[in-house]
Every structure is written in structure tokens, then in C-alpha cells.
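Sequence, please.
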């Protein structure tokens, strides 16, 4: 059983106590480090000083990146599926051109 433990993460110099499953502490720390890095970038841009605004702008930037990656993934999956369909068509064409040869292959393996 995976027990829940207390952990602390640091974001922009502030410590935040978090409870999470023991097995996910490392992943939580990686996420916190990523968030801290992105929030620091927004803060260093010099245009925003309010912590809440920094958090919102950072969240919007991360959400935008996530949506772009999702669109790229969807596009790639579509291209892969098209390629698979094209290869299946080629295989079917090759098999249908020489049905005796494929029957011979199957009958000799029995």
C-alpha cells in the first residue's frame, strides 16, 4: 500500500507543504522545479511583480504549450495511421497479385 506523506516544495523562495503518495514525491519535486523555473522566467521579465499574476501567466503559458503538444501529437498519430493504411494497402495488393504463391507458402508450412 502506498502511504501518503508530507513533503515541501519551494516556489519563488516560498515553501509550500504538500501531501502526496510516497511513490510520487520525486515526480512532485520535478513538477515543482519545472513550475519554479517557469515562474522565475515570468518574474524576471520584469513586467509582473504580483505573485498571483505570475502564477496565472505561467499557468497560461504551460497550458498553451500543452495544447500545442497535444495538437502535434494528434497530427503525428494521424500521419502514422495514414502510413499504416498505405502499407496495409500495399501488402494486400501484393498478396492479391499472386494468390497461388501465398497459398503455396501457407500450405508448405503446415
Amino acid at each position: 500500500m502506498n502511504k501518503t506523506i508530507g513533503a515541501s516544495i519551494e516556489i519563488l523562495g516560498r515553501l509550500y507543504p504538500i501531501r502526496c503518495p510516497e511513490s510520487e514525491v520525486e515526480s512532485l519535486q520535478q513538477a515543482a522545479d519545472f513550475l519554479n523555473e517557469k515562474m522565475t522566467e515570468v518574474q524576471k521579465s520584469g513586467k509582473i511583480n504580483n505573485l498571483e499574476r505570475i502564477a496565472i501567466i505561467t499557468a497560461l503559458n504551460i497550458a498553451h504549450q500543452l495544447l500545442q503538444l497535444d495538437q502535434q501529437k494528434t497530427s503525428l498519430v494521424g500521419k502514422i495511421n495514414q502510413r499504416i493504411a498505405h502499407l496495409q494497402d500495399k501488402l494486400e495488393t501484393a498478396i492479391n497479385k499472386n494468390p497461388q504463391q501465398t497459398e503455396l507458402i501457407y500450405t508448405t508450412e503446415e
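Helices lie at 25-44, 51-97, 99-108.
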